[in-house]
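Recall from the previous chapter that SMILES is a line notation for molecules. Here it describes flavin mononucleotide.
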Amino acid sequence: MSLRTPLCDLLGIEYPIVQSGMGSAAGPELAAEVSRAGGLGIVAGLGVTADELRKRIRHVRSVTDRPFGVNQWLHTELRPPVDPARVPAATMRAVQTQLNVFRERLGIPTTDQPAPGMPDLIDEEFAVILEERVPVWSIGLGNPEPAMVRRCHERGIKVVAMVATVEDARAVEANGVDIVVAQGGEAGGHRSTWVKKPREEASVATLTLVPQVVDAVRVPVVAAGGIADGRGLVAALALGAVGALLGTRFVATRESMASEVWKKRLLESDGGTTLTEAYTGLWARSLRNRFTEDYAASGAPVLPTLMQQRAALDVFAAAAQQRDAEYTALYAGQSTGLVHDLPGAAEVVERIAREAEAVLVRLRAMGGPR
Ligand SMILES: Cc1cc2nc3c(=O)[nH]c(=O)nc-3n(C[C@H](O)[C@H](O)[C@H](O)COP(=O)(O)O)c2cc1C
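With both inputs in hand, we obtain:
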């Protein structure tokens, strides 16, 4: 039974399986393998310079001539990035005081210096996406301006935006995107909104969000959040989606850039995750560790979008060097309990397609004559 959906025709792919352009996990090796296998691989663009992004794009093209995408965050606090001078000194001090607890545990120098701001990279990255005519521009945490969408369309680039609410789905459709990704609350990583919302508001479960978004917009909808196998893909199709976008499943692949300790923790996890703002200042789903739990218990405030992460970079770097999973970011969704192995990314695509086809056959048999 064929798995082809309108998404396959729209993007020129074989299977309606999209790999998320995950910051810190989705490099060109991962994206190329997914695309080579017939899905849509997406390269992460978050925090990457124009030169590095161009290298990643060319790397994918050296492996496969199949369609792929590049992901960018368009959060309002990154356009332009918030100036650290605007953060009250007391907030900055309170953040550093808690991070100093972690620094002492890791045996690295403490600091009371303000965190550095984020570099302003969005425009230069977008220029590379246009110049290179990347087949798909994937947006997380943002609503692209109509002019940006128009420039993509002039070059034959498809535009995909991920949202976590029905209201935002309508907003990105109004600005001209070709495909909406509905991100349910089970999803690993950040809630895909362009202003920070209360965590409950941006964490509607996939089962209820996807059909609401399907009903609200005319463009095709891809489901994300909690999908890790063929059963999940078929469930997404049953909800009216034309495909599934997966993050957590692809973190645990040989080609993902995630660290070994991160992959190990993910494989050991039984699905228990938390929503934390301690890593970046925005709500993100991850595995629990000392960093998420002790930061929340401390009651310390968090800095604006990604400035929080910049403040903690030395902590993350020391933990990575010491292979200490307690003080590194372990983004993962609730599907961790479904992820038990570390295959190649192409195998994941092929396996999910095979499983989904078998589920469709089983469902058809259930509906047939008895
Ligand atoms: C480690 C990790 C990093 C992520 N980074 C990004 C990112 O940089 N940009 C983005 O649009 N989405 C990002 N996401 C969110 C995914 O796009 C997607 O919504 C989510 O992974 C789907 O749910 P799942 O993890 O249950 O498969 C990330 C997800 C994970 C797990």
